[in-house]
């Protein structure tokens, strides 16, 4: 199970709130595939989230889509990753959740636009920065669940007696301006599922 012997009884003096993790990568691939059929997405590999990369690989295989893995651990690496993506004829980009990359969403969105690559990230700010779409856990929901746990612990409840919660609320934001710039038509079925559309 990883850190806990069981999510319902974590034991020790530990509990918490976890995201959907492995589920989000394949879902992002599916959404991107809906927007850009036959796309070969680029995925940024991170040792901490290797299992997410593996589950995305499985999802790509099931859709018979070629998945190109590129890495970026510094600003120059982001430029090199996009150059490698263009060299390998990638047609879309999936940006995995990563503190370094989250802090450079404007640069990534700009490079994606310059490279004419549709890009999906995890947080709404990525779509606001010019990425095509964002799909991921709702951070306000994660913070709300964490706040509830802090309140319970302050009232004397032992963390070991509280199950680990999984935040299941997700948000999708589509940037219609970016879609138009890329010459993409966003299917109405996808627009209907979006929490927000940026025009």
Structure description:
The chain has helices spanning 24-35, 50-62, 75-87, 99-102, 105-114, 124-128, 139-154, 176-181, 188-193, and strands at residues 17-18, 41-44, 68-70, 92-94, 119-121, 133-137, 165-166, 170-175, 196-198. With 199 residues, it is an alpha/beta fold. It has one domain: 3-Layer(aba) Sandwich (Rossmann fold). The strands form 2 sheets. The chain has a 7-stranded mixed sheet with strand order 3-2-4-5-6-8-9, sandwiched between helices. Strands 1-7 form a two-stranded parallel sheet. The N and C termini lie far apart (43 Å).
Core attributes:
elongated; 16% strand; Rossmann fold; 199 residues; seven-stranded mixed β-sheet; two-stranded parallel ribbon
């Amino acid at each position: 199970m990883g850190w806990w012997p069981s999510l319902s009884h974590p034991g020790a003096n530990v509990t918490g709130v976890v995201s959907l993790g492995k589920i989000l990568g394949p879902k992002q691939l599916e959404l991107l595939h809906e927007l850009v059929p036959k796309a070969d997405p680029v995925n940024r590999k991170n040792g901490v989230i290797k299992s997410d990369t593996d589950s995305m690989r499985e999802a790509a295989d099931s859709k018979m889509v070629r998945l190109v893995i590129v890495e970026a651990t510094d600003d120059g690496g982001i430029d090199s990753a996009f150059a490698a993506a263009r060299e390998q004829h990638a047609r879309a980009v999936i940006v995995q959740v990563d503190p370094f990359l989250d802090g450079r969403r404007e640069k990534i969105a700009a490079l994606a636009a310059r490279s004419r690559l549709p890009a999906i990230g995890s947080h709404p700010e990525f779509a606001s920065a010019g990425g095509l779409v964002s799909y991921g856990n709702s951070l306000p929901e994660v913070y709300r669940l964490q706040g509830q746990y802090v309140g319970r612990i302050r009232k004397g409840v032992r963390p070991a007696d509280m199950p680990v919660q999984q935040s299941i609320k997700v948000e999708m934001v589509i940037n219609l301006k970016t879609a138009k710039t890329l010459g993409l038509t966003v299917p109405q079925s996808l627009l209907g599922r979006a929490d927000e559309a940026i025009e």
